[in-house]
Amino acid sequence: MKTFNKITISFTLLICLLFSYSLLYQVYLEQTGPIYDNTLRFHVRADSDKKEAQERKLIVRDAVLRYVKEDVYRADSAQELKQNLAEKTEEIAQVAANASDGKPVRVYFTKERFPIRHYGTAIFPAGEYQALRVDIGITGGVHSIPTSATPRKKTLPSPKAEKNSGKRSQN
Questions:
Q1: CA angle, residues 35, 38, 43, in degrees to nearest 5
Q2: Cβ-proximal residues to 29 (8 Å cutoff; 6+ apart), any chain
């Protein structure tokens, strides 16, 4: 009889834990799911891991962020922001080219996986996001700096916030 009670109690606890986990997971999905659809990430990739290429990448990133800042603040959704920036792709490429010390640049939209990122109090979970990407030179698996531009939250990290995070992702 005691063994039956232990099994029953253990089984009941297991069911309660699984139920609690499923509820917490549902809450997590409800809170983070919309961020993927309403965020346009910004990703700059350098052509090497050399110090000068990484410094150039930061200069290009800052120049492009300054150029698109007003569009980010005016947009009500990631789709609206993407549409506005798509109309300015050539201008964005010119801004990036001017900041790239003569290196060729490629500016385009893509959908890609990003790691979890913290920008001040904003947290962007790992996942697949739409992205405006700037490739400097011929890129291929080098360190990169992903950035987020969420129209409603207006999250544009400052160079200091990015520098202080100390994190870099690999593509």
A1: 90
A2: none
Q: What pTM did the predictor assign?
A: 0.65
Is residue 86 within 8 Å of 109, Cβ to Cβ?
Answer: yes
Residues forming a β-bridge with 132: 42, 109
pLDDT digits (tens, 9 = 90+) for 40-84: 999 999 999 999 999 999 999 999 999 999 999 999 888 999 999
SS3 category, 144: strand
How many whole angstroms separate alpha carbon 137 and alpha carbon 48?
9
- Residues forming a β-bridge with 117: 124
Cβ neighbors of 165 (< 8 A, separation 6 or more) are 117, 118, 119
